[in-house]
């Protein structure tokens, strides 16, 4: 399968650069795009899905370039963060209507049946959208995105608003889709990336500040993360003095982790998790 090549993509709005020379090489499988609100993730998603055009730069996938928007739309399935459906018709009716809008004239009914099985909604196909849980509606969203068997699937904030069980089910579904396509997950929730992605890029203020494996990111922070323990009073005194990246309160004491290039009195060296490594990276990028 081809790689998705994003080469020096820039998007400017008058004097403001939402993206500044973004370059990524995305292989088949699960790829995460992580960053705070305003980092440029949604702008990049909108460019990838041909909703907006870049100011400069090129994107290619095999022999298809993003100068050919109609060809690109045949390659891509998209589930935006805000996804609404007609609430008073059934799941099957919604997907059949969307298949028609996509120009699918042959095997439309079979395609709908196939995607319902993939997203495990075949037993709910006759339910109206208003009768579904939030997780089921998101699965209908994925179903419409993969109706035409796209080679690239773009998902924006996939688990936003889902309860913990639905979140786990949805991540499992995305992971399965990643075995057959390139799946790009854009989110500010580190746990989503940690659960399902193989590689990731971190964006901040329109720039890529990291691109690589999850392990590489945690290794970057490995030498500078320390764990400490203190009373509630001492912890709050330390907040303004230390670069605290995580904390937990139990048994009337705080256990917290800090970033420091030098050992701290009473501190224990620890291996960071991905969220702590991400916080470390964001802190380093501010310096």
Automatic annotation (TrEMBL):
This is ABC transporter. SUPFAM superfamilies: P-loop containing nucleoside triphosphate hydrolases (SSF52540). Pfam families: ABC_tran. Signal peptide: none annotated. The keyword Lipid metabolism does not apply. It comes from the Bacteria. The keyword Methyltransferase does not apply. It comes from Fictibacillus macauensis ZFHKF-1.
């Amino acid at each position: 399968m081809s790689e998705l090549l994003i080469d020096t993509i820039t998007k400017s709005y008058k004097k403001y650069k939402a993206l500044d020379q973004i370059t990524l090489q995305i292989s088949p499988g699960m790829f995460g795009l992580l960053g705070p609100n305003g980092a440029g993730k949604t702008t990049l998603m909108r460019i990838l899905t041909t909703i907006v055009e870049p100011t400069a730069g090129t994107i290619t996938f095999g022999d298809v370039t993003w100068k050919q928007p109609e060809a690109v739309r045949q390659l891509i399935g998209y589930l935006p963060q805000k996804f609404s459906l007609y609430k008073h018709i059934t799941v099957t009716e919604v997907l059949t209507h969307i298949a028609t809008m996509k120009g699918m004239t042959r095997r439309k009914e079979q395609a709908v049946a196939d995607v319902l099985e993939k997203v495990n909604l075949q037993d709910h196909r006759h339910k109206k959208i208003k009768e579904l849980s939030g997780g089921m509606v998101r699965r209908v969203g994925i179903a419409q995105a993969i109706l035409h068997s796209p080679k690239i699937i773009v998902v924006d904030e996939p688990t936003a608003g889902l309860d913990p069980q639905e979140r786990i089910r949805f991540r499992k579904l995305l992971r399965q889709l990643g075995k057959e396509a390139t799946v790009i997950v854009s989110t500010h929730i580190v746990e989503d990336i940690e659960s399902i992605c193989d590689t990731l890029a971190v964006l901040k203020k329109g720039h890529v500040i990291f691109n690589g494996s999850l392990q590489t990111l945690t290794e970057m922070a490995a030498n500078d993360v320390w764990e400490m323990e203190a009373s509630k009073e001492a912890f709050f005194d330390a907040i303004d003095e230390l670069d605290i990246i995580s904390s937990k309160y139990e048994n009337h004491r705080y256990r917290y982790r800090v970033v420091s290039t030098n050992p701290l009195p009473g501190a224990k060296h620890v291996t960071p998790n991905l969220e702590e490594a991400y916080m470390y990276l964001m802190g380093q990028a501010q310096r």
